[in-house]
Write a structure and sequence with these properties.
- This protein is of the alpha+beta class and about 525 residues long.
- It has 2 domains: about 5-240 and about 495-520, 3-Layer(aba) Sandwich (D-Maltodextrin-Binding Protein, domain 2), CATH 3.40.190; about 265-485, Dipeptide-binding Protein, domain 3, CATH 3.10.105.10.
- It contains 19 helices and 19 strands.
- Strands 1, 8, 9, 10, 11, 12, 13, 14, 15, 16 and 17 form an 11-stranded mixed beta sheet that branches. The chain has a 4-stranded antiparallel beta sheet with strand order 4-5-7-6, covered by helices on one side.
- Helix 15 (about 365-375) links the parallel strand 14 (about 355-360) and strand 15 (about 385).
- Helix 18 (about 445-455) packs antiparallel against helix 19.
- It is globular and about 65 Å long.
- The N and C termini lie close together (about 5 Å).
- The model is unreliable at about 1-20 (pLDDT under 50).
Length: about 525
């Protein structure tokens, strides 16, 4: 199927269609669903959208599509020394930036320095706080050393896009996140290169013929933006796009249609109600426990998710990380009322509506929050759900002086994925903004200590034991009210060949091989 067969003027507008490269162009809703339209395109500040980022930027390493091991991307190989205190990377030869300049180890050093600098707004800076030195050994080799072992460094690198020093070094780090470079003329090393961004509508890429992994089979990609998951599903059904994320209630539309392939799997993302630690009403653990007992999580999973979710009692769902004595917080509104009475809820908040901010702006989430609202109302808690887009959500929680009254509670998700250290960005006191994403200001010394110890522990059994303690501590203290891990669905047209998509955190820090994607006629 070529773009010409898909009536591009109706899809993108006549001017946009005439600018598209000739040949095969795959159009998808790559940022539909959790994460949504990023609003800004700086990968140093991104927590989602990796399916799309990885088509034009690249990382040193990635996971394989099954998330069982690391594979090389820009690094052809690497070695680890001193128990995780030192990493040496050897770059692939002949890699070019899309402006023709060669990739060098200096670019890697430059990127790591930006990532570790909180002035850039980097979400990696907190996790790189133990970075000691970055040494360039020739043009293709770089050694990174830490002051203490960092056994989670490779996981971090699967999300850290390598950036061109020769194009970005002149921008002050404090101005980098606001630069228009990211959405006007970014240059990467990936198989596709940036052409244009039409705000709120689409991003267009074209094939990079000098790509180190071989000339892409497609001549271009288009990432279309949709206001809702349902509208993206309608566009897919109509043939206007060839891929998108869908909600569980959309799956039946495609499951038995031979023109589509449904891809399903666990999201590795725990959805939770996060309590802002700065809000006086949530200082008492009794209040946080009351939320857990007041919400019938199983009913929501069964009725709204159609059973396509697994209840979570802590930030982890991998059996190896779950302790044997977790409180499952069964639905018990009577107990919730008792706990609220003990905590003095009428004095703490009374009947004032409590905003619940979320970036999930789809109908399924609206229904979920409506169900929570009804259940909590039965025990005397009045919540007011507020669904916004990602850009608005980020502007509220990451403001220079955020007002906790605007987000006393969030309904969000955070990956636990293949590396359990990932949730530290939201739960460790070492990751308060701007050094990380702990925007709820969770400050539980036991948790911070456990994450720090686990990050420098090389023995798998000892590390697993520490993360089990993280699970138990979150289950007991409830800085978050963990809800569930939903099954995630993507649907792709069977006209798309060699397409790799894995339900995964943040859209996927894995080897999707977009240079091999193609369209059948």
């Amino acid at each position: 199927m070529t773009l010409a067969m898909m009536t591009p003027p109706a899809l993108l507008g006549t001017a946009a269609a005439s600018a598209l490269p000739a040949g095969q162009v795959l159009i998808g809703g790559f940022d539909v669903g959790p994460g949504g339209l990023p609003g800004k395109f700086d990968p140093l500040t991104a927590t989602a959208g990796f399916t799309w980022y990885n088509t034009y930027f690249e990382t040193l390493v990635l996971y394989n599509p099954g998330f069982t091991h690391f594979v090389g991307a820009l690094a052809k190989n690497w070695t680890t020394a001193q128990g995780g205190r030192s990493y040496t990377f050897h770059l692939r030869p002949g890699v070019l930036w899309q402006d023709g300049e060669p990739l060098t180890a200096q670019d890697v050093k430059f990127t790591l320095e930006l990532a570790s600098n909180p002035a850039t707004g980097s979400i990696f800076s907190g996790r790189l706080s133990d970075l000691q030195s970055i040494s360039v050994v020739g043009k293709d080799t770089v050694t990174v050393r830490f002051s203490r072992p960092d056994v989670n460094f490779l996981d971090l690198l699967t999300k850290l896009m390598i950036l061109p020093q020769h194009l970005l070094a002149s921008i002050p780090p404090s101005q980098l996140a606001q630069s228009n470079w990211w959405y006007t003329h970014p240059i990467g090393t990936g198989p596709f290169q940036f052409v244009k961004y039409v705000p709120g509508q689409y991003v267009q890429l074209k094939a990079f013929p000098e790509y180190w992994g071989g000339k892409p089979k497609l001549s271009g990609l288009v990432n279309r933006y949709f206001k809702t998951v349902a509208s993206a599903a309608e566009a897919l059904k109509a043939g206007s796009i060839q891929f998108t994320y869908v909600n569980p209630d959309n799956v039946s539309t495609f499951a038995h249609d031979p023109k589509f392939r449904v891809i399903a799997g666990p999201s590795y993302v725990v959805n939770y109600l996060g309590f802002n630690a700065r809000a006086p009403m949530f200082k008492s653990r009794l209040v946080r426990e009351a939320f857990m007992y007041a919400i019938d999580r199983k009913q929501i999973v069964d009725s709204l998710y159609g059973g396509a979710a697994t209840l979570a009692d802590c930030p982890y769902v991998a059996p190896a990380l779950l302790g044997s004595s977790l409180n499952s917080y069964p639905y018990d509104p009577t107990k919730a009322k008792e706990l609220l009475a003990q905590a003095g809820w009428s004095q703490l908040n009374g009947s004032k509506p409590i905003p619940v901010l979320t970036y999930y702006d789809d109908q399924l989430t609206a229904n979920v929050l409506s169900a929570m609202q009804a259940m909590l109302a039965q025990v005397g808690i009045d919540i007011a759900p507020r669904q916004v887009d990602v850009a608005t959500y980020n502007s509220i929680i990451l403001a220079s002086h955020p007002d906790w009254r605007k987000f006393p509670i969030v309904f969000a998700g955070l990956q636990d994925g293949p590396d359990p250290s990932s949730v530290a960005v939201g739960l460790s006191a070492n990751n308060f903004p701007p050094r990380g994403a702990n925007f709820l200001h969770v400050n539980i010394p036991e948790l911070t200590k456990l994450f720090t110890e686990a990050g420098s522990t090389t023995a798998l059994s000892a590390q697993t034991h520490l993360y089990r303690q993280v699970c138990a501590e979150v289950n007991r203290q409830l800085p978050w009210a963990p809800m569930w891990v939903a099954t995630r669905y993507g649907v792709v047209s069977t006209s798309v060949k060699n397409f790799v998509w894995t339900p995964s955190p943040g859209g996927g820090a894995y080897a999707a091989m977009p240079q091999d994607w193609s369209l059948s006629r």
